[in-house]
Design brief:
This protein has 71 residues and is mainly β. It contains 1 helix and 4 strands. A hairpin with a 2-residue loop joins β2 and β3. It is globular. The mean pLDDT is 83.
């Protein structure tokens, strides 16, 4: 049986102190990275923002991203 992961995953990522994402516009950043990640939502405190985002990423934001498992 093939035990390799397949399909896609969804995960939350918290933006830590010193992250290069702070101040970045994620829609542009993820598109140019070419790593297959897609931003589904951004949680900032009690607010949930959906793409396309107008506001840049801030310290403590939680990013909900989806990506594909590599074979």
């Amino acid at each position: 049986a093939d035990a390799s992961p397949a399909g896609s995953f969804v995960t939350e990522l918290r933006v830590p102190i010193g992250s290069s994402l702070i101040g970045a516009h994620l829609d542009e950043r993820l598109r140019s990275a070419g790593d297959g990640l897609q931003l589904l939502a951004l949680r900032r405190g009690a607010r949930v923002l959906s793409p396309p985002l107008v506001e840049p990423v801030a310290l403590g934001d939680i990013l909900l991203v989806q990506g594909a498992w590599e074979a």
